[in-house]
Design brief:
The protein contains 7 helices and 12 strands. It is an alpha/beta fold and 262 residues long. It has one domain: Ribonuclease Z/Hydroxyacylglutathione hydrolase-like (Metallo-beta-lactamase, Chain A), CATH 3.60.15.10. The strands form 2 sheets. It has a 7-stranded mixed beta sheet. A 5-stranded mixed beta sheet has the order 8-9-10-11-12, with no helix packed on it. It is globular, with a radius of gyration of 18 Å.
C-alpha cells in the first residue's frame, strides 16, 4: 500500500485533535462540554483512497451518537457513502473533500432513509452532486422529513449494482429497515454495513422502530456471504472491526426475533 500523502496526514491529525478536544469533558470548571452541533465532522483514513467521516448528534434516548459514512476516491473526484446528520455537517464533508482532499464529491449513495444517512441530501443536491438511493429509500424519505436522492438504484438478479464503480452496492433484504443496503469495496476488503451491522460491544440492535426483526439475521448472513473476503467491517455507529461484527449482529437479531413469553 502506498504511504498516505503528507497533506492527508496533516489534515487528519488536525481533525482528530480538534474533535478530541471538543469531546473531552471539562472537570470541575463550570464550563459545559461541547455539544455535538459544535463538534466538527472528523475524517479517518481507512486505507489508501478510502476515508471514514464521522458526525455527532445528541439523541434523548441514546446520548451523543456518532454516525459513520465513507468517502471513496475515484480519479480526480470522490464518491460519498451516506451524509452526516444534517445539511450543515454534510457541508463540512463537501468542503473537506474539495479543499483538503482535493477530490470534490461528484456522486453520493445513501444506505437507508433515516437522518443519520440522508439528513444532508439537500446540501449535496444544492451543489449539483449526483445522488442515488434504493427506490424504497427515495419513496420513504419525504415521509421521514428527508430529501430523496435524484436517482433510484437498479439491482441485478443477485441484488447488486456496480453503477458507482468501484463500489459494489448490495441489497440484503430488510433488517434495520426494509430499505437498508450495504456497500462493499472488494479490492480493499471493506464492507460498509451501515445500520444493519452493530458495532463491537453491542448488547442490543439499537433503534428497531422500523426494523424487520424476523429477517434481520438473514440479511446479515447474506452480506457475509456476498462479501466473503472482506476483513474490514464498518458499522454506522461505532469503530471499524472485523468479521466478528457479522456474528455479533446475527446473534443479537436471532435473540430479538424470539417472541417474549408471557
Amino acid at each position: 500500500m502506498r504511504p498516505l500523502p503528507h497533506s492527508y496526514l496533516k489534515s487528519l491529525v488536525i481533525c482528530l485533535l480538534t474533535a478530541f478536544a471538543a469531546l473531552t469533558p471539562v472537570v470541575n470548571s463550570g464550563v459545559q462540554a461541547a455539544q455535538p452541533k459544535d463538534v466538527p465532522v472528523t475524517f479517518t483514513a481507512i486505507t489508501q483512497g478510502v476515508w471514514m467521516h464521522t458526525s455527532m448528534k445528541h439523541m434523548e434516548n441514546w446520548g451523543h451518537v456518532p454516525s459513520n459514512g465513507l468517502i471513496v476516491e475515484k480519479g480526480d473526484f470522490s464518491i460519498l457513502v451516506d451524509t452526516a446528520w444534517d445539511d450543515p455537517q454534510t457541508a463540512q464533508i463537501i468542503e473537506w473533500s474539495k479543499d483538503t482532499l482535493k477530490k470534490p464529491i461528484r456522486w453520493a449513495v445513501f444506505t437507508h432513509a433515516h437522518d443519520d444517512k440522508m439528513g444532508g441530501v439537500a446540501a449535496l443536491r444544492q451543489q449539483g452532486i449526483v445522488t442515488y438511493a434504493a427506490a424504497d429509500s427515495n419513496r420513504m424519505a419525504p415521509q421521514n422529513g428527508l430529501t430523496p436522492a435524484e436517482h433510484d438504484l437498479i439491482f441485478d438478479s443477485e441484488h447488486s449494482t456496480s453503477v458507482l464503480h468501484p463500489l459494489v452496492i448490495f441489497d440484503p433484504g430488510p433488517g434495520h429497515t426494509r430499505d437498508n443496503i450495504v456497500v462493499g469495496l472488494p479490492e480493499q476488503g471493506i464492507v460498509f454495513g451501515g445500520c444493519l451491522i452493530r458495532p463491537s460491544g453491542s448488547t442490543s440492535l439499537g433503534n428497531t422502530a422500523d426494523a424487520d426483526l424476523a429477517h434481520w439475521k438473514t440479511a446479515v448472513l447474506a452480506v457475509a456471504q456476498r462479501f466473503a473476503e472482506a476483513q474490514q467491517i464498518i458499522p454506522s455507529h461505532g469503530p471499524m472491526a472485523g468479521r466478528e461484527l457479522f456474528e455479533l449482529t446475527a446473534q443479537l437479531a436471532e435473540k430479538a426475533s424470539i417472541p417474549s413469553t408471557p
